[in-house]
Fold these 4 entries.
Entry 1:
Amino acid sequence: MSVFAPAAAALLTLLARVDIDGIVVDETRAGEAPLIANQQPRATFANVVVLHLLDPGLELRLDYAPRLFWLAATDTPTTTPLWLNVVDLTASLQTSPRLKITGKANFTQGKTDYQFLSQTIYGAGQAAVPTSIEVLSVTAGEITEVRADPTWTVIVEADAAYRKPESTTTVVVNGQTMTIPYPRQKGVQVVPSAIDRLSNANDLVLSSGVSLQSTSNIFGTMVSSPTMVSPLGGETLTDVGNFEVLTITPEIGWRTRPSPWRQLHLGAGVAYNHVFETPYSVPTRPFSPIANVDWSVNVMTGHEAAYRGTVSAAVDYFVNPVIATAGPRALVAGAIYYAVPDWMVGLEGAFATPIGTRSLAEWRELNMTIPGMAPPVPPDETVASLSLPVRHRVSRNFIAEVGGRWADRGPRLTGLGDGLGFHQRQLWVYLSLTATSVPVKSSLTP
């Protein structure tokens, strides 16, 4: 455990006297993982301390969570702790029984470890990850919910994001060292939807999302190791183009509740995409089918025990902000938790991969090898993860959790058959201790 944890816990006592809530999370883990993307996994010991500060008296909730990460790995000298600033702002306004507005924003800046970068900042379904560990990420969103009449509800969701890795990498070409910038990613999305209550157990859901996403410095994205080059070819290693795509996804869905504790959602539609700017010569299809199914259950079994489970599968149209590509993608995710008043055990898993076949030979036909460099290697587009948390409420203000995590990344499935394989394995055993000035509820189910 970090020596900072006791000091942070003492800080919670001080904060309680000035009416500021605080949460301290200290996690120690051991296992193996890459230090940065596209490196081989190595034995690693790490410690993370996160401090959350928030004012319970504000209508706007401001949560500042500085994050410190220590790392010790084989064949690597002890490094300076990584400092990451994370600020979350949430607000909720209900002017009448029919209108509710919820807003959120996040600011993340600093240096982070590979697991947080790949799982939290870029998301569990994002396989390709920049090799930079220093990042700036700003996101904002709002949800407006209007109850038009007793049966119809209109919801408008809007999100915007800006991400920029704040460091560079270098490669050696023909004996010369060249600096490569990393990509800037911008995106905005608006999803209006209308829900018609057909009966007490059935809803009709209509939606049509519109998103515009762009990535610049594409070559810097693709050259994340000396063996990965841009599909553009050429001799330059700096800004070579932008990737910008508009996507419109109309969808119709049906949501049913067979019982008060079970819910099923089915949806289907089509994704239309228009590429405004791209340096690639590979054509994209303007239309792609999309579909999703979600099943959730939340049951009390008596004696204050409960279990909760979710399973989802989807085919969506995914614009990859890291490697600047777009196309259909398959996703599968699931989680199950069982909880009694002071204990919880869970199992979580996820898998994502692009749909479509492309052999290694076909991929290399579209990519040029720069003289002096190894043949190009396809970027990671397939990701799988699994975690097993066991949580115990020691007291009203203290939680302990132990568990294991596994994740791995590799090219699309057809590339795995060419002997490329998964190569970014993360395998962890961890212990997490949480102290909070806010009393913890007896139910520990997420």
Entry 2:
Amino acid sequence: MTFEEYKAGGGPIPDKILAWQVFGSGLENVGIDGKPVEIDTYPVGPDQILARVDAAGLCFSDVKILNLGGDHPRLFGRDLKNDPIVMGHEASITVVKVGEKHQGKYKVGDKFVVQAEAYYKGKNLAFGYMLPGALQEYTIIGPELLEGDDGCYLLPVKPETGYSEAALSEPWACVVCAYRVKPRTSLKSGGTVWIVGTPGSENMGLNLGAFEYSGVYPARVFLTDVPAPLASQITDLCASAGISVTTTAPLAELDPAAVFPESGVDDVFVLGSGSAEVIETADKALAKHGILNLLANSPLPRPVSVDVGRVHYDGTFYQGGKGPDASAGYTRKRGPALTKGGKAWMLGGAGPMGQMHVQLAIEMKDGPSVIVASDIDPERLATVPERFGQNAKDKGIELICLNPKELGDEAFDAKLREIAPDGFDDVVVLVPAPPLVTQGSKYVAQDGWLNIFAGVARGTLATLDVSDVALRGVRYTGTSGSSIDDLRKTLSLTESGELSPNRSVAAIGGIYAAYEGLDGVKNARFPGKVMIYPQIKDLPLTPLEDLADVLPEVAAKLSPQGAWTREAEIELIKHFLPK
């Protein structure tokens, strides 16, 4: 078979395929005896297509499945022992068979990437979780992905785009999403607002621009401990707009779960700086994508324990301003994109995802002028300037790598203060450790962003000086996963040459190498992504720096910096094609 025939989806479809089925938690429950399971090739129904899996990236999210088994939130308690899944949500696929219903719409040889976060009839049925994923030779694509709630979850890929770089669009979309998320610029229409007074708010006026000028109105407003004159002003304004107002019991006697909707509160306003406890209570009451506004003119008495897991997974958002303008947070112009010409600090910037953030910051248009990548692993940290140093230099960007463990706390702090005396415009936390979220928050500049990217579990608390959101315009944000629009944007950046996902690849392997690859991801053995080629059986897990010893003709096609390329991938596939 020629490579062109392979690209076109040619070749016979086998009766049996290899699949890495997951039967429970722990790596020992992936496959049988450390090997993939041979299963019957999926029959193709009239509303389905059969796709060949050309490349599948391994992700730390796969490790979370191994840790939790059927208790993983996206598996909804599935009995994996009797109903196993096939992981793998970073996929590049080629259509090889089309069901009757989709004849004419899809054809053999069509290339796609899969948007893993899929909803069908209101239910989350993610690819590589509830739906069979990419760690197998062929996968079945049904109405859940072809006719989902957001339409089709497959995005077409240009013929010249490589399989690996296409598959990496999925994890890269998560990185791109972190800087594209759009906080609301007004109250939630038809939502719920809670206004809470604290000691010190008695003499505080309130400009209700958030209600009066946006043209967007909530359905309900709750008032707790709001000074009487201000409560009367709010009540009159809401009455004129037909908004329901409820005055609750004092906070000390209030059971939020009994008062507020089960979904939570969409917009919270904490007035005054007399109580950190009020913010901790309000934090628990926030709805998904809820916004907490602190309006204060002086610091809180102490730092606040913030559920940073919810900031990451539920998109809860912190903003505010010096009173009395209730609209201060909503109308601030600066968005989440890294500041043009600014200073960015990537905590954990040498890990696989961290290096992707560093690379994006370097490759993006109008990015920062100074990028600090910190990591405690000296070997991983050394790969950052090796991979990206020249690119940063060519663009006039100062790339600084720091190891806090080697420097020690005092020297590390002094170095950060030297680099950014006024703080960093963007602090991105890429390690799921609450102390690092706390540490990073202390270095955010005026009007800067604290981006909690690392996946800490809901209920994980970090101590933050929330006074900053009111007094210095700091905002807290976080994202988990990405939307199909983020994936589309990322694929566009890749295919236009503005982004080079292949630079993320650290190791490659065939279908049998997935087991060792997952172990490598779990134990952070590689400074980048592991890419599996399911159509290849006899390629062991191979770091790119060792490729010359295994496949010298493929290694010869790597970039001058040793990065994976389309040309190397073509040479790899040609080498293993049946003669």
Entry 3:
Amino acid sequence: MVNATRHDKNDIIQWSMYTSWSGVGIILCCLLLWSILKLNRRRATDVFMAAFCVACICSATVFGVECLINAIYGSANPTSCWTESLVYVTCVTTQFACVTCISVRSYMHVAYNRIITFRSAIYWISLIVVVCASVTYVASIHSSAKVMSQVYCFYNFDSDVVVYWFIPNWIATVFIMLFCYARIFFTSFHIMSRGNLN
């Protein structure tokens, strides 16, 4: 279920601005993705970063297209509004998982001298995309989307997809990254201190 209403010229101006900003974001992500693809030897981190860029491009594209549609017609189309919310949450949760993987990969390399291979990273990203898309879709079946701040579409904050999927993902990402980088810092500090003593 989507709440759709008519909007004035100020909303159309805001939608147009968001469309332009989305275009800039897409260009920057494409440049970063291109630089990764040009590498002769790619590592697991490159896979995670490339997946992050692709998810960013997808979310920005859907966001920009929805804003452009709203700017042209002056109202939020129910189907496109729900689709934007679905793709946006899928992409953002994928981005959460990508930065988490980068922090875990760095932690494993520094703390245990273990390396995630390029092939393993491909498998992990494939699994992440499937899980994020599937869970988001299932959770969105009973979740309603609406125009937020009269500009973009998103699920209601008390909906299943936000309460049981989006927010837990965000919290888990923050805590895992804090743990990994704190351990990296203390491990590196310990190694440096031991080296100075020798």
Entry 4:
Amino acid sequence: MKKISYVIGLFVLATCLLSCEEEVPVKDMGLESKLVLHCFLSPQYDTIAVTLSRSKSIFHKGTISAEVEYAVVEISSDNKTWTQIPYSKENNCYLLPQYQFPIVEGKTYYIRASSPNYETVTSSCTVPIWREVELSTEVAFETQSGKYPYYGTYAFLSLSWKDYRGEENYYSAMTAYLNYYEFYAPTAVVLSDKGKDGEKMNAFISAIEDCTYSDFMEYSEYPKYIIFMQTDRNCFLYENSIGMNRESSWDFESAFMIEPSLVYNNIKNGYGVFGALTFKTYKVDFRKETVEEDDFLK
């Protein structure tokens, strides 16, 4: 009797599964290929650069060209009058010199891209207004006993400043040059002043391994060059999500237990990010505790 019931149960289950079988278009499942757009605006850049590619459906077999060359990519400052951004085959992206379309602090910009067989993607962002903050240096000597790369004795180099009070601010900092004695985070440090309005902010720049105070005083006779950025919310969320993905990939021991982290996306009908930032460059001497503006990128 038990065997009969078991067989009947299997039959009923198989019948149910067969009756539910139906071809569902990939588009209806939300898995179709979409346009992927990346663009970061800044008044300090001399050119607007847009990369446009296509995502790959999980059901797609074979290879697929990533770049989308024959698309119409346009930018606007009022969402009415649009300027086309031409494709540069040499650079595999869409480029527009800023003398033809200037980017200004405090203004909102709109972008759209269309290509045959794809939905038109759109987005917008507002360029942050640069707020003067006074940067200072901090050095801390610590012995680490954690996982790679943090074990041994290190000199941790940081920048600090006081947050501009009364508004939502996002910051980013990165070292423009490092020698072989150092390592630093693969992505720029990104920070938000949420819950810290008007308070002291601190950004890790780099670390020197096996370094005592006397070693540090001898080593740091050469200045460092720092790019200090003030970004919009889109840049912050995107870079932060990229950093979370990278950090989780470092933890090999528990990788199978880590929940996948989604990368931030603000592109309607597609994927990617459209953000804005302003920045200044500085020469920093951690030994002398000096921070000076320096146009080393020019």
